[in-house]
Amino acid sequence: MAKAILYDATKCTGCRGCQVACKNWNGLEAVETYNWGSYENPKDLSTQTWLKMRFIEKGGTETDNMRWLFARQSCMHCTDAACVKVCPTGALHIRTDGFVALDKDKCTNCGYCVEFCPFSIPRLDASLISGIGDKATKCTACTTAGLNRIDNGYQPACVNTCPTGALTFGDRETLLSAAQDKVAALKSNSHPNAYLYGENEVGGTHVLYILDDTPKAYGLIEDPKVPAAATAWQDIIKPLGYGIVGVVGLGLILNIMVARARIISREEK
Amino acid sequence: MTNHWIDLRNSDRIMIIGSNAAENHPISFKWVTAAKERGAKLISVDPRFTRTSSKADIYAPMRSGCDITFIGGMIRYILDDMQKSSPSERAEKYNMTYVTQYTNAALIINNSFEGALESTHPGLFGGYTASKNGTPGILGSYNKSTWNYADSTTPASDPALVNNTWTAWEDLDSKCVLRLLWENYKDYTPEKVEEITGCPKDKFLEVAQTYAESGAPGKAGTIMYAMGTTQHTYGTQNIRGYAILQLLLGNIGIAGGGINALRGTSNVQGSTDMCLLSHILPGYLQVPIHTDQSLDDYIARAKKGKDFITPQGLAGDKSASWWWYNDADPNYKKYLVSMLKAWYGDNATAANDFGFNYLPKVTSGDDYTHIGTFEAVAAGIVKGMLVWGQNPAVGGPDSEGERKALEKLDWLVVSDLFETETAAFWKRGGANPGSINTEVFLLPAACSYEKQGSISNSGRWAQWRWKALEPIGQAKPDLEIVDELALKLKELYTSEGGEFPEAITKLFWDFREGAAEADPNIAAKEFNGYDWTTKTALTSFGNLKSDGSTCSGNWLYCGMFDANGNNKAKQHDPVDKSLNQIGLYSGWTWCWPINRRIIYNRASVDLDGEPWDKDHPVIKWTGSITKWAGDIADGGWNPINLSAEGAKYLPFIMHREGVGRIWGDGRAEGPLPVAYEPWESPLETNLLTGVEDTEANGTPGFNDPCCYIGKMEMDGQVWNERGTPDNYPYVGMTYRLTEHWQAGQMTRNLPWLIELQPQPIAELDPVLASQKGIESGDIVEVSTARGSIDAVAIVTKRFQPLTIGGKTVHHVGVPWHWGYTGQCTGISPNGSSGNVLTPHVGDANTTIPEYKTFLCNIKYVRKGGE
Amino acid sequence: MELSRREFLKASGAGMGGLVLLGAMGSEKVPRAIPLKKEPLGETYTICCYCGVGCGALATAAGGKVINVEGNPDHPINEGTLCSKGQALAQFRTVDGEDNPNRLTKPLYRRAGGTAWEEKSWDWAITEIAKRIKKTRDDNWISTVNVGGTDYTVNRTDAIAHFGGGELDNEECYLLVKLTRALGMVYIEHCARI
Questions:
Q1: ipTM higher than 0.95?
Q2: What are chain C's domains?
Q3: β-pairing verdict for C141-147 and C150-164
Q4: Residue C124 forms contact with B (CB below 8 Å)
């Protein structure tokens, strides 16, 4: 049965219990930060920060009431997961419940997941050229081996700690249905731009967002796309296997793809 | 809290004012959110748009320090609506039975009383005498002789009000409380509210109307407040304003109602109940004063002015007046004697007044509170100081002055988890350690899960927590440290003698009972109380005696134990057995008094014992045999209509008149709150009272007429200067952040929290920022007449300029968490705590410092960044 | 082992269902079913030390380290949830697997005019503090005050002040109020006043 995490932005108070719960459960270290003129910190995800909350201010004018929006930034657990498509070793894989898990023992630090993720989520400290450094990291929906809450019947740490019920965990179908109702209610109640993010994006994601405004207002990527190169890699090249193309050849092909992905990425920006 | 956290979900209207609950009590929003899911409306009134405001249905901005104007405006709105409604409409919109039968709204006040709007003494009630102008201290005081009921023991009530037959104010007695309330607030019009607070009139009216809807019978509104309310020179009167509002709306005692003080630290409720405060003994008993030369003197003084009052013309005809219940052998005496028995044991006998004279007596009128203590330290009166888990060098007002005062001590003892700024005051920026002769002892304390014991939350739940592991290094629980110190002192006084040694040598002190270390279970049993002879735990303060046969260190906690000696603070029944499952969870731990989860709950039912709100019954009368169902009823007497003449108990059982006090004569600056300006105000004239600020140290009628103006002089330097708008044109205020904790040590040493909020901030609106050339991320200096701090600027529309009396007023906000020790420190050498900026002035009733409003300036210093 | 150190945690909302008064009257550690670890470790009931909400939390410790703290799902106020501060409770003791280096672990003493802390024994510290209290109290004892021409016996000292209590346990506050009043102290305050 497909599972999901539902984030209801209309209930979130930005307390960031989830952000610390993630570090607490996964044994992640604090990152050195400085205040850059915002409550939001760390400034970005990293190998030690798999989940962070964004703080976004809107309105505050004569005609537009002040709003302070909070948005979760972490792995979206895509159904059509680019990172899984490009992962040469199967370290990144999709579980039967739909969450994108990571088997660190299989990770070779190649960094392709970092390059291809349409949401820019995975992080790797290593140099792409030398390949030396940490393995890829990202939220695994608390399915990391040895730290697996899900398979032992518990909620992910972030959901478990959420004071207001902004985060819930359960069957994707059930959550989707509840979220659809909530978004419909928001739309009819002075939030015409309310949106259910993740319902259809990249094949439907296993992290869903109830938003009372557009994804853009919440700093989310509108219409995220799996890079064509990732699809090509999985559907055409990967089946050929290491044996035929050879490790060197694989590396070359991938490097070309990475370079192309970077160009595409720059063009999009 | 009169109610408790879970009960927030039963509210229909929630007003958060003087609190930023989403940030400082995040889990409260579990229940606020649950209420909103039920359709409740959330109102946030705050000078700045906070994480609380982000979830509010209505956000109303308000200039810091203007609560009384705002609440007074709401009271006026309700009174005006009551008067303009027909009697039948009135009874639909407002619970007039509650208002007239359960409050003193209908009672008649002394005919000589003069209101604060009289032209002869604008802004002041009759009977005021100013202190010497221009000098620090209390601005002045009142002769309160006209603030009482016209008939002091059997006050009359207004029949037109009680019978709900009035249509015009003139129909009511000119000295009836409701009429006086109108007279006091009739000038607090929506226009006036906008002019003074800066809250647009329409927004104010939206708040007033929305919240007033909780006045309908069966509806509930709650007020959540915290230090944004209390930390003003008129903080107590701010709360009085809320109390009046809630009584007018019939919101006290009911599910989803109440006045809910959100307590800031995990056991500040319990430490207050234990009365580690200068004016009270455990259980809120008065501290003995110099004239109390015997137990009888003490009881007689405490009783003075506390005669039973029997309101006339109401359905109820009896007040319990709990402190003095059973006049011949009053509870007050039982509680004090039982405390003395717990303290002096076999040495407490009837022959020696149960050791009453072992207690120190304060000199009446002297100030022993926080501000007064630091003035005494600065003056060299206090020479030694014991500090347990507190950090006044960051948390105290005008904190550079308080830090300087610490240099005057001979010795200082600090017990804490970390090296606090208080312990390390001699290391602070600008200090010369070689010239500071204070000896400092810094003791390593165990953290909350390295020991066991109980703490009491805001909802008065005493909850036991257990030890997860041994303390770090050589750290010890504070209990063991205090116990060892006490035993050492007893040993020294026994062997060496000294001044008045009996008070120590005769002290009953056995928290080990033969073990090597003190046991908190023994302490808990002692403050709960037990039969002195049999040592059997007492199950209710109703069992306490005044003859020395019972001991109880704190009567309020009597009942925490059952008769078998089991501590109910340890019980965990997860099933909610309350009526309609309103969330009382009475089997989960224990709360004072006697596990009553919602206090004043007899006001939640009508005269027949039926709940006003059938869906959320707190208690319910079920018949003469089965009596009350639900919560522990506030006094088990029958409902008023089902009681005999002379035994129809009124619901507010602690009050000597048995009803809720819309009118109250206990406060220093008047029976009803009046809108005064903060000590440092951007205005020159109080726009409500019309009084100009003419005096250097504060003007009665412009400022709170009875507030306390502190001043310290050390080494030729005068502290606590008052700033003026020409030099300090902006309204400054301090606050806290979700990610940090009070004076900071408990979060500035935890890396996960440092990561979230790594540096002190100063927040300001974009208009002011543009005028000053400040951008988000810049380092700025915020200054007041007391000092200055550097912080990272956050320029945000969450702050907006307000128009006050025709002029633009900007706010600048700074948290006070930072200091100069620990893993994460401030930017300027003084540690950048907001309290470097705050004044040493105090509330007229409590002397709580006015942290929340002062005048400041701000300027660009340099670019910030990594 | 490194990766499995938290496997034993149990966070089921049904964990306490029906177990009325479990943990009552002194049972501090609740052993729970642990799915992947052979030796169950107990979780200790604690209450968060930060604000006045009083959230229940479960602390798991082993080998002198706090391995995990999370909300107690049975606690009716927080139902297993915690905010960022509460979720960081473990770091009071254990940071990145080691003792929090910022914690005080030994009594420290700073002599008059001193520029650094000196480590001391508990015995020394308690004895020296008691001596300071006794000397200051005895040297500054006020037996009587004269108010309005009348002498009143007051038996107190104005020379020693107390601060603190809001972060201590009730039992600790009780011992403190009993001791400080018995010593004749009257400058007794804590954070409730400010």
A1: yes
A2: 24-99 (3.30.200.210), 140-194 (no CATH)
A3: antiparallel
A4: no
